[in-house]
Amino acid sequence: MSTTDRPVATRPSAVVPEIEVDPGAFRHLADAQMNVELDTGDMVLNLGPQHPATHGTLRLVVRLDGERVLAADPVIGYMHRGYEKLTEYRPYPQIITLINRIDWLSSFANEVPFVHAAERLMGIEAPPRAVYIRTILTELSRIATFLLFLGEMGLQVGAMTPAFFGFRDREHVLNVIEGATGGRFHPNFNRVGGLKDDLPWGWIAECRRTMDIVFKSCDDFEDLLMGNEIFEARTRSIGIIPADVGTSYGVSGSNIRASGVDWDLRRDGDPYLAYRDVDFKVWTHPDGDSYARYWVRLQETRESARMVLQLLDAIPAGPIMAKVPRVIKVPEGECWVETENPLGQMGYYLVSKGSTGPFRTKIRSASFSNVSILPWLLQGVYIPDIITILASLYFILGDIDR
Amino acid sequence: MADETPPEGNGTEAGEVVEAAEGAEVPALGEREQALLDRLAAELGDGLVEHAEACGDLVVRVRPDSWRRAASVARSELGCDYLSFVAGIDWMPAEPFQGAPGGEPSQPSQPSDTTYGAAGSAGRFQVFARVQSTADHHGVTLKVDVDESDPRAESWVEVYPGADWHERECWEMYGISFDGHPNLRHIYLPSEFQGHPLRKDFPLLAREVKPWPGLVDVEGPAGSDEAEGGDA
């Protein structure tokens, strides 16, 4: 694929100074040769699709001038599974299994907006206990997703230790999720109208213990990375996303909060789950660079753990399933439901024609828009910073390709 | 804790449709949505064709020649700085599935008559998009009709740069061109791919080549699936 015919948006930092060649300055032809070579010929570097920083199979075709990026073109679709088409061929209970696989690190959080859309069109509401358990599991998914990020971000800038901590502590959270749902990654636990099962005995105490591990883990990451000189040098003022550019590209979630946009759908969107009953803070950072994105996610991990503790204290008794018909038929209508997923705004535009399956499901996944800013963002940066920026944007390929 | 309310059996009987709450037919806009609609109507004039309410959200259908203008009005006047998505929809009913003998029991059958969703449509194809405000937390869904014989719409890339990839996806999946888009090319599929997969007349190829639910996987003759454990 050629990238040269692609129009390149201009941006001040992308201007590469032209090397002026003064013929009188050379004593040997070899010198002139070298200078001329420096001046000509952009190099095209193919990054991925199997690069570890790409969390799957993102391919970047980068046009370079020396060490500097002139233009970057993400090539996606290596993992396109066509979920929007598949949803038109399946009934609602089967679709919940499918959409687990969109963002596979926080599968439970994917299920929630879809189930909400169906419930809203059917005019039913999940019982309070189910709502609370959904909220807890969504926040646990967020913690698991972010713990992996907090460790792996260190790895991408050359620090091995945090990666092991991240994987180790995420495992505790995954065990808790598995204890409740039976699945580490793909719980498939939501049903239209409630949940598959109630919590097992002893789960609440186990979850509290795990939150202690999470707090400790966050402290570890803070000690290891936040004050680290090398880490700051690699991330400070690298990959700055201004707030207005970010929003116009549809960048959402922690990425846009790290650019100073105080926008969190848990607090600002249509009321969903039990977030109105929880006291929590929305963290923002004014800088918009890779460091800010790391910092915001670190704070949000702690905040989620605090929310889980609050929810565990307040979890009501009662049934976990509303009265729903045996065959789920959603009345004719359309509905947009969005939630704040770990990676950003996740939404489903569900169009139903009264059948047992949707007529059309538009899946708005967060990473697709988050990554669409890359051609703009990577202009003018140096090659090692590409990796930092990719890691700090934190995307999941399943969430891009759907 | 035991599951005290079994999810099945105590609800209404099989196949019954749970109707939406009474009053859902009346397009009662909330105050905020009404203010948004008034603002849009004042700016777009007769470019605004129809509006509706869908689950509390404002849905506005605009004329094809007002599509880009609607975006810039939404961005500058309504404060919708955030582009959520741009997508297409094909309102034509799909062909009933004709793969395995007897059809596929779990596949939903859609009604065979063409109906249009909130705010209506003039024909088979539509492009719809959602923009939102990160400061005031409101949002609006915009729709535009697309001519079936020459499917094209105005591009939003000038207003929202993030529309680039969304429109490429829409072009690839529905064959709708976007006037003013800098490079409409495949985004998910290989560049030599033929057809537009999300159109309703594009068959799900996996189902065409192998009947589902995997009749070939069942060992023994049909009807002896008790031996398999009977995963009904």
What does this structure look like?
The complex is a heterodimer of chains A (402) and B (232). Chain A is built from 16 helices and 8 strands. With 402 residues, chain A is α+β, with helices and mostly antiparallel strands. In chain A, a hairpin with a 7-residue loop joins strand 7 and strand 8. In chain A, helix 5 (128-156) runs parallel beside helix 7 and helix 5 packs antiparallel against helix 15. Chain B has 232 residues and is α/β, with parallel strands linked by helices. Chain B has a single domain (31-93, 116-217), classed as Beta Polymerase, domain 2. In chain B, the strands form 2 sheets. A 5-stranded mixed β-sheet of chain B has the order 1-2-5-4-3. Chain B has a two-stranded parallel ribbon with strand order 6-7. The two termini of chain B are 26 Å apart. Mean pLDDT of chain B is 76; it is low at 1-26 and 220-232. Chains A and B meet through helix 2, helix 4, helix 9, strand 6 and strand 7 of A and strand 3 and helix 3 of B.
Helix-and-strand structural type of chain B: alpha/beta
Query: What summary fits the major beta sheet of chain A?
Result: 3 strands, antiparallel
Do you know the CATH architecture of chain B? 2-Layer Sandwich
Instruction: Give the DSSP E fraction of chain B (strand runs of 2 or more residues).
Output: 15-25%
Largest interface (C-beta under 8 Å): A-B, 81 and 72 residues
Alpha-carbon Rg of chain B, integer = 22 Å
Structural category of chain A is alpha+beta
Gap from first CA to last CA of chain B: 26 Å
What's the count of strands of chain A?
8
What's the CATH H-level superfamily name of the domain at 86-366 in chain A? Cytochrome-c3 Hydrogenase, chain B
> In CATH terms, what is the fold-level topology of the domain at 86-366 in chain A?
Cytochrome-c3 Hydrogenase, chain B
**Overall geometric form of chain B:** globular
CATH architecture of the domain at 86-366 in chain A: Orthogonal Bundle
Give average pLDDT of chain B, whole number. Answer: 76
Report the top-level CATH class of chain B.
Alpha Beta
Our count of domains of chain B comes out at: 1
Q: What is the C-level CATH assignment of the domain at 86-366 in chain A?
A: Mainly Alpha
